Amino acid sequence: MAIDINNVPPSSTQVSEVGTQRGGNPTHTEKAPEKPSAPSQAADQVSLTPAAQQLRHLEKQIADQPVVDTQKVSAVKEALANGSFEINPARIAEKMMSLERALGDMS
Fold first, then answer.
1. Does position 24 have pLDDT exceeding 60, yes or no?
2. If you write DSSP's letter for every residue of 76-99 in order, what string do you get?
């Protein structure tokens, strides 16, 4: 069985040609798509606004800071060890309520 591919328009991505080998087995050969020539491009330039430059500087400062305040951790450990760490339930409740209000304002 012969297939006439002359009436089939080529696709934009690939063209497949079908033929037959001896014994009637089909063979396929695929052609790679043609690459369009790239237009010449000028060098890209980026300029940051003063606000963006300041933000970049602040991000770098924050990144340079340690994640954990080791002095504060040491002070709390020492206060817990010697029994001088005071728990203020009213202050804890106040902070929890302010967090709830802030989260409620976000929605």
1. no
2. HHHHHHHT-PPP-HHHHHHHHHHH
29 Cβ contact partners less than 8 Å away, ≥ 6 residues apart: 16, 17, 19
DSSP per-residue codes, the chain: -----TTSPPPSS-EEEEEE-TTS-EEEEEEPPPPPPPPP-PPP-----HHHHHHHHHHHHHHHS-SS-HHHHHHHHHHHHHT-PPP-HHHHHHHHHHHHHHHHHH-
User: What does the pLDDT look like over 68-81, one tens digit per residue?
Assistant: 999 999 999 999 99
Q: Which residues pair with 19 in a beta bridge?
A: 27
**Distance, CA of 17 to CA of 33 (rounded, Å):** 13
Of these ranges, 19-23, 30-34, 63-67, 94-98, the one predicted with the greatest mean pLDDT is 94-98
C-alpha distances out from residue 60 to 45, 48, 66, Å = 22, 16, 12
